[in-house]
From TrEMBL:
Functional note: Catalyzes the phosphorylation of ribose at O-5 in a reaction requiring ATP and magnesium. The resulting D-ribose-5-phosphate can then be used either for sythesis of nucleotides, histidine, and tryptophan, or as a component of the pentose phosphate pathway.
Superkingdom, taxonomy of origin: Bacteria
The protein's name: Ribokinase
Activity regulation comment: Activated by a monovalent cation that binds near, but not in, the active site. The most likely occupant of the site in vivo is potassium. Ion binding induces a conformational change that may alter substrate affinity.
Enzyme Commission number(s): 2.7.1.15
HAMAP family: Ribokinase
Name of the encoding gene: rbsK
CDD domains: ribokinase
Cofactor note: Requires a divalent cation, most likely magnesium in vivo, as an electrophilic catalyst to aid phosphoryl group transfer. It is the chelate of the metal and the nucleotide that is the actual substrate.
Catalysed transformations (reactions): D-ribose + ATP = D-ribose 5-phosphate + ADP + H(+)
Annotated ranges, domain Carbohydrate kinase PfkB: 6-276
GO MF annotation: an example: ribokinase activity
Cellular component aspect of the GO annotation: cytosol
């Protein structure tokens, strides 16, 4: 008997990442030289879509790109992985989003995003397919996310990144909110006055899962040698959502998410290092 894969819809950004690898990240006003420049697919929506697909989900991406060569480059790995891109809109009046990323020798990064067509993903253009779970982030218009919150009936994960003010109704509707430490500080105690789960990532120290301010589960990160942390948070979000949607308990899903994110840091680029399920489970077993 064939078990149907969990179906996940991702609504979010697609970017082309221009990555400069340097010995150390610059301070404010400082120029760091001798960098090496690379190009790779990125955007939080695209990263999460590819992560979920490689981890075993059936994935559809709803996004907006420009009618340019950068769009083909940004979507290349998603196409190769058989992510459903029928919901990706091409806007001829806008360029595909671009992220400018600096990565140092320890794998830490600094990122500036020019969103381009991601700003054009409006609610009237969306066709939500049936799915077990939906993941969205804040690199597309908040009004679009409000529409999703009203319309989608399955498990809803909202990755509150990058930080911006969001309607209370969106926070209340989410079954899972995902934040890093800086984002958790920005949104404050209101995250814990809600009924859904709240996952806070702690970088190399692991992650904590809360409900109504009470700790549900904690975990550490399996030991790896990171080379690039770009996209690790997106991998975590996709893996945690997938685990919970599959019926894993909170602690198991959190461990799975941290293991997948850890593996993702061992490769260069936001997407090239995203692991398959076997690699994440192998790290968990060590």
């Amino acid at each position: 008997m064939t078990v149907q894969a969990t179906r996940i819809v991702i609504t979010g950004s697609v970017n082309l990442d221009l990555v400069a690898r340097v010995a150390r990240l610059p301070k404010a006003g400082e120029t760091v030289t001798n960098g090496e420049l690379g190009r790779s697919p990125g955007g939080k929506g695209a990263n999460q879509a590819l992560a979920a697909r490689r981890l075993g989900a059936e994935v559809s991406l709803l996004a907006c790109v420009g009618n340019d060569a950068m769009a083909d480059e940004a979507l290349a790995l998603l196409r190769a992985a058989n992510v459903d891109l029928s919901g990706v809109i091409v806007d001829p009046g806008c360029a595909t989003g671009v992220a400018l990323i600096a990565v140092d020798a320890r794998g830490e990064n600094q990122i500036v995003v020019a969103p381009g067509a991601n700003r054009r993903l409006s609610a009237d253009k969306l066709q939500l397919p049936p799915a077990d779970a939906l993941i969205c982030q804040l690199e597309v218009p908040v009004e679009t996310l409000e529409f999703i919150a009203r319309t989608f009936e399955g498990f809803l994960c909202v990755n509150l990144a990058p930080v911006t003010d969001v309607p209370e109704a969106l926070l209340q509707r989410a079954d899972l909110l995902v934040v890093n430490e800086g984002e958790a500080k920005y949104y404050g105690d209101k995250l814990h006055r809600l009924g859904g789960l709240v996952a806070t990532t702690l970088g190399g120290r692991g992650a904590v899962l809360y409900r109504r301010g009470e700790i549900v589960a904690t975990t550490t990160v399996p030991e790896v040698v990171p080379v690039d942390t770009t996209g690790a948070g997106d991998c975590f979000t996709a893996a945690l959502t997938l685990g919970l949607a599959e019926g894993q308990d909170a602690a198991e899903a959190l461990r799975f998410a941290c293991a997948a994110a850890a593996v993702s840091t061992t490769g260069h680029g936001a997407q090239a290092g995203l692991p398959d399920r076997a690699a994440a489970l192998a790290l968990l077993a060590n």
